[in-house]
Design goal:
The protein has 7 helices and 9 strands; from the N terminus they run ααβββαβββαβαββαα. By secondary structure, the protein is α+β, with helices and mostly antiparallel strands. It has a 4-stranded antiparallel sheet, with helices on one face. A 3-stranded antiparallel sheet has the order 1-5-4, covered by helices on one side. InterPro entries: Flagellin (IPR001492), Flagellin_C (IPR046358), Flagellin_N (IPR001029).
Length: 388
Amino acid sequence: MSDITLSSAVRRNLLSLQDTAMLMGKTQERLATGKKVNSALDNPTNFFTAASLSSRSKDLGRLLDSVNNAVQTLEAADNGIKAITKLVESAQASARQAQQGASAVVKTAETSTSVAETLTPALAGVNIITLTPNGGTAINIDISLMTNLEQVENAIDDIDGFSARLIPGDTPGEKKLEITGGDGMEDFAITDTGSGAGTALTKLGLTATTSTARAFVTDGKSEVREKLKTEFNDLLKQIDDITKDAGFNGNNLLANTDLKVIFNEDGSSSLTIKGVDISAAGLTLSPVTGDTFQYNDDIDTVLSSLDTALATLRSQASTFGSNLSVVQTRQDFTKSMMNTLETGAANLTLADINQEGANMLALQTRQQLSTTALSMASQADQSVLSLF
């Protein structure tokens, strides 16, 4: 209080005691919070620099969550590719097993040349082709009134022991006629008879020849191969199912969906992971239809497509593996960067608890000494009373 007069010694000791109390208050705050900079008033430069570092660390932490999701998405895609690879390998095994079947049907050596699907009527006479099994009775087919190859195919299919089918021709709009004999037939002859002889086979793209065939089991087809065809198609369906199920958190890289991973707070550093179509159609694998599994050379075509699919899967697995390596590297880097930022912020604001504890002990001692000195100064002022 300004209206109370204190001696110089008492005032000096009082100021010292007040300074000590103020320092003890700051030290107690540091010990309580663990920080030497608790507000901008303590140290503006350190306070705002530390706040900036902490904010960036938090931003990276939020991005790290999306990076973690990207890692899981890639792992899900990789698991899907591994499973699909096993299915393709199983499909290969089914195709090879069919090809090695003891009751295999062998395509005849006689396949027509490429001709127009629509037949041009003969100029004159009756147009007949004759199929004669070795040691058997000749079978005549009148094609005079037939207008397309499909009618010829159906007519041959109706004959017990024979099978026919149309395959793509050499040019668009053309077909080839393939005739196969079975039911124990060792070979058969194809001839051209009738008043219009010389025109029927020509119209079909055939030449008079003898072809060999093996026996069919029933209905001109191998039952074993038919079962393996069904198994093959079931495997293709499973490929499609796995493709649909290989997503994570709404992202499916196997369904041709891209994934963008952002690595820094302003989005200038990122990686776009390209999705692919790994369904059966995406791998150019088609369900087997008709008599494809009845013929070894057709199975060779299927096996070739399976080889291509496997190569595609292995290549894509390698690509996803490289992407995963990049994302995991950035994931580790982000974690390290966050730790560096937090450490930097801590170095600017955190207090040394050991040092602050020692400071508190020193201040307590100083406070006791200041109190004693103040008491002694007061006693000196009181000595004047002894004069009265």
